């Protein structure tokens, strides 16, 4: 039985593939984890091969598998009906495991190497293994659909999931990034008032964003990507004209580095999610408009 196996990675695409040669799974927002079961002994590895057996001991304990097996999957925390990376980080920081769930989606080894076998056969072998072992919660089999990936992606986006992973049903497992696995990510869009900025020599390094909630103007986080040097300089000139001596946020921020402005400009933002702290995650600037 081998040690840690470098994981297969997915290539980002804008549209999901269609056809019976593809199977489609939900894209989970968590930690990629490889579980090794070797005749009663368990090891849990991160995507980069770190041994995190102690941090995920509850999941390892649930996999009471005879013989040898290597399972690929994702550890998540489900919050408000979907996986939430910020909640998972909070659980890890606190040393808790009771909210963690392991979605198993591939079987690389079962008393022998399965990596050359087709994806669909490996998934069936995984389902059989979990069923035979009567594996309890928090280990779950990652279900899939076959056929119209775009339709599944659109449903995932409406439910505010991170997106989907599409996999070639006939492909082997390869420890690299390739187009046998594709990832299609849902992107959310919104307009947020600019409440401040961080200067750089010729423009802005970041924008502080807010959101109006009733009478309150609440902080939504910073955005620091999505503009060229020319656009950055233009943003700076616009915001310099509305500089304010103090923050317009209802609640003050701890140790801000911002130059505050009147919230007269709105930033068009694409983002992946809103964290449990109420902040934009993986945000990118797309444009600026006057209120």
Distance between the termini: 63 Å
Task: Give the CATH H-level superfamily of the largest domain.
Answer: DNA ligase/mRNA capping enzyme
Can you tell me the CATH topology of the largest domain? D-amino Acid Aminotransferase, Chain A, domain 1
How helix-rich are the residues, as a percent range?
A: 10-25%
- Average pLDDT: 93
Number of helical elements: 5
Number of strands: 19
Which segments are poorly predicted (pLDDT under 50) over 5 or more consecutive residues? none
User: How many domain modules?
Assistant: 2
User: What is the name of the CATH architecture of the largest domain?
Assistant: 2-Layer Sandwich
For the report, how would you describe the main beta sheet? Answer: 6 strands, mixed
**Highest-level CATH class of the largest domain:** Alpha Beta
Strand content: 35-45%
Order of helices and strands: EEEEHEEHEHEEHEEEEEHEEEEE
Task: Please tell me how large the radius of gyration is.
Answer: 23 Å
Would you tell me the structural class of the helices and strands? Answer: alpha+beta
Compile the SSE list and pairings.
Layout: E1 9-12, E2 18-26, E3 31-38, E4 41-46, H1 57-62, E5 68-79, E6 82-83, H2 85-94, E7 100-110, H3 119-132, E8 139-141, E9 145-148, H4 149-158, E10 163-168, E11 177-185, E12 188-199, E13 204-213, E14 216-223, H5 229-240, E15 259-260, E16 265-271, E17 273-274, E18 280-281, E19 284-290
Parallel strand pairs: 1-11, 7-8
Antiparallel strand pairs: 2-9, 2-10, 3-4, 3-5, 5-6, 5-7, 10-11, 12-13, 12-15, 12-16, 13-14, 16-19, 17-18
Write a brief caption for the model.
The chain is of the alpha+beta class. The protein has helices at residues 57-62, 85-94, 119-132, 149-158, 229-240; strands at 9-12, 18-26, 31-38, 41-46, 68-79, 82-83, 100-110, 139-141, 145-148, 163-168, 177-185, 188-199, 204-213, 216-223, 259-260, 265-271, 273-274, 280-281, 284-290. The chain has two domains: 12-185, 2-Layer Sandwich (D-amino Acid Aminotransferase, Chain A, domain 1), CATH 3.30.470; 188-290, Nucleic acid-binding proteins (OB fold (Dihydrolipoamide Acetyltransferase, E2P)), CATH 2.40.50.140.
């Amino acid at each position: 039985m081998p040690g840690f196996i470098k994981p297969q990675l997915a290539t980002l695409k804008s549209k999901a593939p269609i056809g019976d040669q593809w199977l489609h799974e939900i894209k989970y927002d968590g930690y990629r984890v490889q579980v090794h079961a070797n005749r009663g002994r368990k090891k849990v590895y991160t995507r980069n091969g770190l041994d995190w057996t102690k941090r995920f001991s509850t999941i390892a304990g649930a996999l009471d598998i005879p013989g040898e097996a290597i399972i690929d999957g994702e550890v998540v925390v489900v919050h408000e009906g979907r996986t939430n990376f910020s909640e998972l980080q909070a659980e890890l920081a606190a040393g808790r495991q009771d909210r963690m769930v392991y979605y198993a989606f591939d079987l690389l080894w079962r008393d022998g190497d399965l990596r050359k076998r087709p994806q669909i056969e490996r998934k069936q072998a995984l389902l059989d293994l979990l069923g035979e072992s009567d594996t309890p919660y928090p280990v779950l089999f990652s279900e899939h659909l076959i056929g119209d990936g775009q339709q599944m992606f659109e449903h995932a986006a409406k439910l505010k999931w991170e997106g989907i992973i599409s996999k070639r049903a006939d492909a082997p497992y390869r420890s690299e990034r390739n187009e046998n696995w594709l990832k299609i990510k849902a992107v959310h869009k919104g307009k947020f008032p600019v409440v401040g900025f961080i200067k750089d020599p010729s423009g802005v390094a970041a924008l502080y964003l807010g959101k109006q909630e009733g009478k309150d103007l609440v902080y939504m986080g910073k955005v620091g990507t999505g503009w060229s040097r020319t656009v950055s300089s233009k943003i700076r000139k616009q915001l310099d004209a509305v500089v304010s001596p103090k923050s317009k946020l209802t609640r003050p921020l701890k140790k801000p580095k911002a130059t505050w402005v009147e919230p007269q400009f709105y930033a068009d933002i694409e983002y992946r999610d809103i964290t449990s702290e109420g902040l934009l995650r993986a945000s990118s600037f797309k444009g600026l408009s006057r209120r």
